[in-house]
Amino acid sequence: MMRWLSITFLHYRYAGISFLRNPMAAFFGTLFPLMFLTINSLVFGDFAAPDGGDLPMTAFYTAGMSVFSVIMTCFTNLAAGLLYDRDMGRLKRIRGTPTPISSYIAARILLAMSVGVITSILCVILGVTAFGVPLNLSILPGFLAIIILGAASLSALGLAITAFIPNAQAGPAILNAISFPIIFGSNVFFPIPNMPRWLDLAANALPVRPFADAATATFFGGRADLHDLIIIAAWGGIGAIIAWRSFRWQPAR
Amino acid sequence: MTEAAIEVSGLRKAFPGVQAVAGVDLSIRTGTIFALLGPNGAGKTTTVEILEGYQQRDSGEVSVLGFDPARNQLEMKRRIGIVSQETAADSFLTVREIMAMIAGAYPAPRNVDEVIALVGLSDKAGTRVGKLSGGQKRRLDVGLAIVGNPDLCFLDEPTTGFDPDARQEAWAMIRELKDMGKTVLLTTHYMDEAQNLADEVAVIAVGRIIATGTPETLGGRAEAASTISFRLPAGTDLPDRFAAEARMTRRGAMQIIADDPVPLLNDLTGWAMAESVSLTDLTVERPTLEEIYLSLIANDTAERKEGA
User: Fold this and answer.
1) Using a CB-CB distance cutoff of 8 angstroms, which residues of chain A are in contact with residue B185?
2) Fewest C-beta atoms under 10 Å: which of A14, B32, B105, B218?
3) Closest by alpha carbon to B43, among B190, B209, B194?
4) Domain boundary at B200, B220, B240, which?
């Protein structure tokens, strides 16, 4: 167990160093959500937030972009990074060493979750300091718990999806084609009050809208819907099982 | 030292439309350097990747240090080191960082800076992998394969892209591994590499081993006829007893092929001394390993065509 932990920490550390030195990864994972938060807040910030009592729209954007940053880092970036490393033969190299599989995968997931959570916190700090979002510190533990749950679930899904993408070139196109339609229909960028019923049902069954709704609810000082939490966790479980059974260390021949 | 590090019998592996490995038998003794030679697509890499645990076999018995590589046990991985085709290191990490990362997975690794020095990258230790040249990256590959202090090293074309200096250094390092009691399985396209390093060689073609032996005896090399070459001064003719056997090369050198070169040389040099003829560029050569290898592959291809 000590060996497992030390090898996990080793890969976490070096994957982290590599991430910090890679400007593209840092841009999409962290600057992108902060940029959207800024633009949305400047353009639409004066409206009142839906279901937010007297909270401004910027509060909604802050919660939404926190969720968006988790989706970008834990799902899109984790999957794209693994695909690239798989194509380059970096995963094959790790596979040739006595690194436990679970230890390497845990390191990559923990790193993606760390970046996602840190970016979420940066979104909150930016919202509070630059756009006057009122923040009651007592909501933070609940909000962070939702962010961490969502990060774990989306990381498992990001890992699982790599089994179905043939190579790194195909990665961004497929990942964005999956994630963006779901994000737009899931109260992340803007609230959608009147969706067609079938779309409404679909969005509620997928993990992003429950995640966004739970994050917004806790950020507004309320409680997350238990139903939402179960959906987020269930998708994480499905992702973990698929990832465990079909993870590939080398590109298909 | 007679215990086998690797034992393979009846190994088979097919891909859709290709029988990549068609019944390979190998026995590699502990503490020796074994070279697997063969043309591209002969099944070298597939065989080696099955031994390393990267690929699953269809059938046959395989034992690597007593382990079945198909079961992918960490205990086996702790005792092997791999230089593979198609692997890379994170280009944003430095040489020392990637070396420490890989070393950290082994229970008793070698000193990271020592290994970096051994592969000649000391002045690049703080350089990011992405900034290394092709040859330097390959040296890093070799370093990463030995940093875990493994008992058995798989070196799949380890000196591809090396300049002559770097190759000599790599060879010295591989011999050093042997001196430390390690076993090395080497695949290579360079016959001089096998000649210089290997205790034993095996030639693989179309998924089967077609010859095994030492570099000196492979394919009957030790008994093979020798070629005597020399140049004659202009206007000098060979006596008839030599002329019948001799042929002239395109570059104007004379060649005589002899199963036993000693009496013929005695006769030839005796004549030259008596007649004051200078035999410039006189050499006696047995076929090189490369020539033996090429004739083995050519014969195998011809037999296969006849059989078809």
Assistant:
1) none
2) B32
3) B209
4) B220
The overall longest dimension of chain A from CA atoms, in Å, is 58
The helix or strand, by DSSP H or E, that contains position B70, with its residue range, turns out to be none
Pairing status of strand B152-156 against strand B183-188: parallel
Residue B155 three-state SS: strand
Measured between CA atoms, the residue of chain A closest to residue B79 is A98
Give the residue from B126, B128, B162, B123 showing the smallest Cα distance to B142. Answer: B162
Same domain (yes/no): B183, B246: no
One DSSP character per residue, B223-260 reads: GSPEEEEEEPPTT----HHHHTT-EE-TTS-EEEEESS
Burial B229-243 (b: 16+ CB within 10 A, else e): bbbbeeeeebeeebe
Dig out the tokens for B79 from the structure.
């005792």
Give the residue extent of every domain in chain A. Answer: 2-246
| CB-facing half-sphere around the CA of A35: CA atoms within 13 A | 7
Reported as half-sphere exposure (CB side, CA atoms, 13 A), residue A124 has a value of 22
- Considering the domain architecture, whether residues B212 and B232 belong to the same structural domain is answered as no
CA distance B183 to B185: 7
pTM of the entire structure? Answer: 0.84
Does B86 contact A90 at a Cβ distance shorter than 8 Å?
no
Residue of B90, B99, B154 to mutate when probing chain A, most A C-beta within 10 A: B90
Instruction: Provide mean pLDDT across the span B248-259.
Output: 86
**Which residue from A minimizes the CA distance to B91?**
A18
Last residue of a domain, one of B188, B220, B252: B220
Nearest to B77 among A17, A92, A98 (CB): A98
Q: In this structure, is residue B110 part of a structural domain?
A: yes
Quote the number of domains for chain B: 2
CATH number for the domain that contains residue B26: 3.40.50.300
pLDDT digits (tens, 9 = 90+) for B51-107: 999 999 999 999 999 999 988 789 999 999 998 877 788 889 999 999 999 999 999
Closest partner residue to A100 (CB to CB) among B74, B90, B93 is: B74
* Closest partner CB to B87 (pick from A3, A14, A92): A92
Separation between Cα atoms, residue B29 and residue A251, nearest integer Å: 34
| Shortest CA distance from A99: residue in chain B | B105
Residue B244 structural domain: 225-285
Interface membership of B67 toward A (CB under 8 Å):
no
Nearest to A10 among B80, B92, B104 (CB): B104
| For range B262-288, the mean pLDDT | 88
Same domain, B210 and B128: yes
Residue A96 sits at the chain B interface (C-beta within 8 Å)? yes
Q: Examine the domain organization and report whether B9 and B119 are in the same domain.
A: yes
